[in-house]
User: Which sequence fits this backbone?
C-alpha cells in the first residue's frame, strides 16, 4: 500500500487535482514509452470528447494515428483490467480518435520561433518527434529526408494493409504545422554533406536515419537476383514499384518485418509462402498477433532451421539448404545459435526474401568529422545523445536497439531535450526518473469489479484480405470506441482522503462496494485498489474525500452553466447516467428537449445530495435523475446509493415546503431513445405543473 | 461520543428569521461521526436554507464551513469565514460547541442547529443508542457493565420497578428494561448475589446537583485561572 498524505491545504495549493495524479501513474501511462496520459484520453473518449482526447494523446505522442494502427501497445499489456477480464483496447480507441479528428487536432505552435536552426536527418518517428519538440521550444528545425515523403518506416516500408499512407500523413501534417521545414529527396552524404549543414549555420544536427538497409547473409548463393533484401522489397511495394516474386516464396527471418514480407508476398499472389527462422515459435521475435494473422493468411512457419546455401539451377533458385538449430540463446539469454550440421534439409522455393534484420546506412558520415567505433557503429554517448562532434546528436534506431514507433518517438523527444540543453549552454543532464506506477489490482478487488467484454475489432476474413493491400482491421465506430473506453477503471483517479478533515467516522468503509477504505487514525484509501466510483465522496459527512482529477464543485458549476444556457422560463436539470448513452447525447447533439439541461455523468455514483440541491438553487424547477438501474450500472451498489440519496433530497425538499415530486428518478435502459423518452416525459409533466 | 440530531427545519428557519447573513458552521468531531453536523450536513443545510429563503422571500444569505472541533480554542484560527461578518452563526455542533464558540464571538448570535441528545454508541450503520448519562459516579462495576442511570427510564439503582415486562420497559415495548439486562448478565457471570446488596442513595452532587462541573489535569494547567 503506497500512500501520499494529502490535506485540504495541499489541495488548495494545486491549480487542480490533476496534480495529484502526477504523484503516481496508472500502469498504462507508466508502460508507454512516451508516457502518454492514457487514462485521461480514454476518459475523454468515453465521453465522446474526441478533440480533447486527441489533444491529450498528442501532448506526448506525435505519431498518434500511426500508433493507433501499429503500436505494440505496452499500455495494454500492463492494463489493470488484465486481472479482471481483458485489457482495454487502448490502441483501437486511439486509432478511432486520431483518424476521426484527423487534421483538426489542435496545433499549439509557439508565437515566436527565433531560436537556433537545427537540422534533423531522417523524417521517421524519431527525427520528426525531435523536430516537433524543438519547434515547440522555439527552435527552427529543418528535417532532411532521402525519400520523397516523410514518415520513415511507417510510410516507406510497412505494408499498406497495416499502415495506410493517408493515416501516416495525418501525423506528418500535424507535426509539420508546428513550424518545421521538411526537405525531401535529400540524402545527406550524397546530395548534401553534414559539413555543408554546419556551414549553413545549423547550430545542432540530429542524426535520426534509423535502420534503412537489410542485413545480408554471407552464404553461398545469397547474391542471386531472386534473393531479395527485405527493405528493398517492402520499400518498392510501398512506392508501388514493380516487385517480382515467384510462386514459392521463402522468407528467412522470424521478426515483424519478416511477417510483413511474408504477408505481402501472399497478397502479391504467391502460391506458397513460408517463413523460416532459427527460433521456435515461442522464441520468435515477431508479435504473437503478427504470427497468428500470418498463419491465418496461409503462411506456414519452418522453425529451428538456419540457412546454409541458396541452391540455384539454370538461373532459378531451386531450394535453400538449412541445418537444424539446437539452440538460439545461450545461458545468459544472449543470441548465440548452435547448429546440428548432420541434419541438413533442402527447402524448395523460387524466391528468397532475406528478413534477418536491418542495419544502419552510414553514408552520412561522408563529408563530416563523425567517427565510427571499432565495431563500425557511430560513436555515441547514450546519456547526452552526442556523437564525437559535440553539436551532432543521434537518436532512434541508429543508436538504440530496434524497437517500435512509440519507442523511437520517445528517444527523439529525449534527444530534443539534450539539444535544448546544449544550445542553452547547459550541461546535458536528462532526468529519466518517473513517478511510481500503481500496483496491480488485488485479486479480491478484481473479483468485485463488474465484468465487461472487450470490443471486437471488425476484421476482414483471411480469404478476403489476402486479395488486397487494403487495411483489413477496420477502425471502430464512435459508439464502439466510447463503449470500449468506458471499460477503463480510471486507475489512479480515485479517492483521496484529506487527512485534516477526516473524522474516522467509518462511512467510507461502510459504503465502499469494493471494501477498499481502511480506518485507523483516519481513513486511508489505497489508490492501487480504489475503483474511482465516487460513492464515498458523495457520502462522506466531513466532505473529506476528493477524487483525483475531479474537482468537487465541477459538477455543480457545469449544471449551473447548462441551466443558465436554457432560454426557457421553466427548467429541468437532468442528471443522466451516461454509462450507456451515445457520445452524441453526451455532447448534447442528439437529444433536444428545450426545457431540459442535460448533465451526463460516467456514473451517478458521484452525484451527491448537495449537487441535486444546488441544481434547484441554480434555477431548476424540477430535477430528474435518470438512472440505468442495478443491472446496467457501472459500479456495484451504485443504484442502491442513488436511490437513497434521491429519497433524502425529497425529504429535504418537503422540509422546506416544496413538493417532493420536484425530484424525479426515472429508470431507463440507458440508450439514447430511452433517455429521450424519459426527458420528454419529464418536460411534459413540467408543462402540466405550470399550467 | 456525543450524539445530536438535526432540529426540525421549521424551528431553524424561525430562529433565523431576524437575520440576513448566516453562516452554517459544522463541527468535525462527534457530530460528523453521527452524520448530523459535518461539513456535508452544513453544505446541505445551507442549500436548504437558501432555497427556503427564496420561496418565502426571507432574503437570507447563507454560507457554510466546518472546523475540526467547536469545543477547542485552537481550531478557531482555521476558520475561513469570519463569524463577525455574519448576523448569526447556525452551529451544528453539539450544545457544547454552540456555547463555546458563542463565548469566543460575543458580537455574533450563535444558534443551535442540532438537539444534543445523548452519549451513545454506533450500534449499527446509521443507528446510535444511549449508553451513558455522564452522572459523574460510575456504577458499571456493580451492575454487570450495564448502566441503570442511562438505560433505566427511572435511573433506579436497586432493581427494576413494577413496569418491567418480559424484559421490556413499560415506557416502550422496543426499549429493553436495563435491570432485566443486568439480571441476565449477572446470572451469566455467576454474580447474581450482587443484586442482593442494597445500594445506598447516590450522591447526586456528582451529577448536576452541585451545579456546573469542572475537571482539571494539573500538569497541563499553565497558570491559575481566575475563579
Assistant:
Amino acid at each position: 500500500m503506497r500512500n501520499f498524505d494529502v490535506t485540504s491545504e495541499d489541495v488548495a495549493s494545486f491549480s487542480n487535482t490533476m496534480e495529484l495524479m502526477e504523484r503516481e501513474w496508472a500502469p498504462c501511462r507508466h508502460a508507454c514509452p512516451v508516457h502518454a496520459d492514457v487514462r485521461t484520453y480514454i476518459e475523454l473518449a468515453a465521453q465522446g470528447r474526441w478533440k480533447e482526447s486527441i489533444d491529450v494523446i498528442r501532448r506526448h505522442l506525435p505519431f498518434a494515428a500511426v500508433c493507433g494502427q501499429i503500436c505494440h501497445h505496452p499500455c495494454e499489456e500492463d492494463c489493470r483490467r488484465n486481472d479482471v477480464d481483458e485489457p482495454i483496447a487502448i490502441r483501437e480507441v486511439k486509432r478511432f480518435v486520431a483518424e476521426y479528428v484527423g487534421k483538426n487536432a489542435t496545433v499549439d505552435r509557439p508565437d515566436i520561433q527565433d531560436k537556433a536552426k537545427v537540422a534533423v536527418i531522417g523524417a521517421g518517428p524519431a527525427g520528426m518527434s525531435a523536430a516537433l519538440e524543438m519547434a515547440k521550444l522555439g527552435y527552427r528545425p529543418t528535417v532532411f529526408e532521402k525519400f520523397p515523403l516523410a514518415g520513415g518506416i511507417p510510410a516507406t516500408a510497412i505494408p499498406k494493409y497495416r499502415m495506410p499512407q493517408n493515416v501516416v500523413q495525418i501525423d506528418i501534417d500535424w507535426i509539420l504545422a508546428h513550424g518545421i521545414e521538411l526537405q525531401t529527396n535529400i540524402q545527406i552524404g550524397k546530395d548534401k554533406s553534414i559539413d555543408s549543414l554546419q556551414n549553413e549555420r545549423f547550430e545542432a544536427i540530429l542524426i535520426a536515419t534509423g535502420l534503412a538497409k537489410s542485413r545480408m547473409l554471407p552464404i553461398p548463393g545469397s547474391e542471386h537476383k531472386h534473393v531479395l533484401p527485405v527493405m528493398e522489397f517492402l520499400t518498392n511495394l510501398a512506392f508501388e514499384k514493380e516487385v517480382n516474386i515467384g510462386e514459392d516464396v521463402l522468407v528467412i527471418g522470424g521478426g515483424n518485418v519478416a511477417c510483413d514480407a511474408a504477408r505481402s508476398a501472399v497478397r502479391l499472389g504467391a502460391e506458397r509462402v513460408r517463413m523460416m527462422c532459427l527460433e521456435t515459435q515461442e522464441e520468435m521475435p515477431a508479435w504473437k498477433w503478427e504470427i497468428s494473422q500470418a498463419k491465418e493468411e496461409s503462411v506456414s512457419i519452418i522453425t529451428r532451421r538456419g540457412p546454409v546455401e541458396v541452391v540455384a539451377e539454370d538461373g532459378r533458385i531451386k531450394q535453400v539448404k538449412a541445418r537444424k538449430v539446437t539452440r538460439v540463446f545461450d545461458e545468459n539469454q544472449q543470441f548465440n545459435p548452435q547448429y546440428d550440421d548432420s541434419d541438413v534439409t533442402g527447402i524448395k522455393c523460387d524466391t528468397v526474401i532475406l528478413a534477418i534484420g536491418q542495419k544502419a546506412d552510414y553514408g552520412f558520415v561522408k563529408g563530416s568529422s563523425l567517427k565510427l567505433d571499432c565495431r563500425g557503429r557511430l560513436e555515441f554517448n547514450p546519456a547526452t545523445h552526442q556523437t564525437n562532434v559535440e553539436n551532432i546528436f543521434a537518436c532512434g534506431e541508429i543508436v538504440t536497439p530496434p524497437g517500435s514507433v512509440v519507442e523511437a518517438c520517445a528517444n527523439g523527444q529525449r534527444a530534443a531535450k539534450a539539444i535544448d540543453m546544449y544550445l542553452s549552454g547547459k550541461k546535458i543532464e536528462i532526468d529519466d526518473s518517473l513517478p511510481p506506477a500503481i500496483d496491480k489490482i488485488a485479486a479480491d478487488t478484481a473479483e468485485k469489479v463488474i465484468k465487461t467484454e472487450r470490443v471486437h475489432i471488425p476484421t476482414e476474413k483471411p480469404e478476403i484480405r489476402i486479395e488486397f493491400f487494403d487495411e483489413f482491421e477496420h477502425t471502430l465506430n464512435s459508439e464502439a470506441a466510447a463503449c470500449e473506453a468506458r471499460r477503463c477503471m480510471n486507475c489512479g483517479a480515485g479517492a483521496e482522503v484529506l487527512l485534516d478533515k477526516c473524522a474516522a467516522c467509518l462511512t467510507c468503509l461502510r459504503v465502499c462496494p469494493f471494501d477498499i477504505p481502511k480506518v485507523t487514525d483516519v481513513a486511508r484509501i489505497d489508490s492501487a485498489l480504489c475503483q474511482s466510483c465516487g460513492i464515498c465522496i458523495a457520502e462522506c459527512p466531513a466532505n473529506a474525500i476528493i477524487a483525483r482529477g475531479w474537482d468537487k464543485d465541477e459538477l455543480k458549476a457545469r449544471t449551473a452553466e447548462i441551466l443558465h444556457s436554457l432560454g426557457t422560463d421553466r427548467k429541468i436539470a437532468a442528471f443522466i447516467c451516461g454509462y450507456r448513452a451515445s457520445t452524441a447525447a453526451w455532447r448534447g447533439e442528439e437529444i433536444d428537449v428545450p426545457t431540459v439541461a442535460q448533465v451526463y455523468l460516467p456514473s451517478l455514483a458521484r452525484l451527491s445530495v448537495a449537487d441535486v440541491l444546488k441544481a434547484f438553487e441554480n434555477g431548476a424547477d424540477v430535477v430528474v435523475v435518470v438512472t440505468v438501474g442495478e443491472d446496467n450500472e457501472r459500479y456495484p451498489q451504485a443504484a442502491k446509493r442513488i436511490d437513497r440519496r434521491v429519497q433524502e433530497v425529497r425529504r429535504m425538499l418537503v422540509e422546506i415546503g416544496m413538493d417532493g415530486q420536484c425530484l424525479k428518478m426515472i429508470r431507463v435502459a440507458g440508450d439514447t431513445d430511452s433517455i429521450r423518452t424519459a426527458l420528454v416525459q419529464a418536460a411534459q409533466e413540467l408543462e402540466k405543473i405550470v399550467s | 461520543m456525543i450524539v445530536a440530531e438535526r432540529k426540525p427545519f421549521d424551528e431553524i428557519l424561525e430562529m433565523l428569521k431576524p437575520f440576513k447573513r448566516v453562516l452554517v458552521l459544522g463541527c468535525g468531531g462527534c457530530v460528523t461521526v453521527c452524520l448530523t453536523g459535518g461539513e456535508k450536513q452544513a453544505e446541505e443545510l445551507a442549500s436548504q436554507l437558501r432555497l427556503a429563503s427564496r420561496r418565502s422571500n426571507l432574503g437570507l444569505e447563507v454560507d457554510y464551513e466546518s472546523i475540526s472541533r467547536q469545543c477547542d480554542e485552537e481550531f478557531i484560527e482555521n476558520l475561513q469565514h469570519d463569524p463577525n461578518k455574519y448576523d448569526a452563526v447556525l452551529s451544528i455542533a453539539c450544545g457544547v460547541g454552540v456555547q463555546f464558540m458563542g463565548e469566543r464571538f460575543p458580537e455574533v448570535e450563535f444558534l443551535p442547529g442540532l438537539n444534543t441528545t445523548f452519549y451513545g454508541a454506533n450500534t449499527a450503520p446509521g443507528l446510535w443508542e444511549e449508553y451513558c448519562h455522564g452522572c459523574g459516579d460510575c456504577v458499571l462495576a456493580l451492575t454487570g457493565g450495564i448502566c441503570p442511570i442511562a438505560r433505566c427510564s427511572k435511573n433506579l439503582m436497586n432493581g427494576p420497578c413494577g413496569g418491567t415486562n418480559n424484559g421490556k420497559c413499560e415506557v416502550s415495548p422496543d426499549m429493553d428494561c436495563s435491570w432485566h439486562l443486568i439480571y441476565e448478565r449477572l446470572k451469566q457471570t455467576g454474580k447474581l448475589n450482587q443484586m442482593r446488596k442494597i445500594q445506598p442513595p447516590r450522591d447526586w452532587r456528582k451529577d448536576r446537583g452541585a451545579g456546573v462541573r469542572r475537571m482539571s489535569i494539573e500538569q497541563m494547567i499553565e497558570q491559575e485561572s481566575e475563579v
Observations:
- Chain B has two domains: 2-118, 135-203.
- Chain B touches chain A at residues 8-10, 13, 28-29, 32-33, 35, 38-41, 43-44, 47-48, 50-52, 54-56, 66, 68, 122, 125 (CB under 8 Å).
- The mean pLDDT of chain B is 95.
- The radius of gyration of chain B is 22 Å.
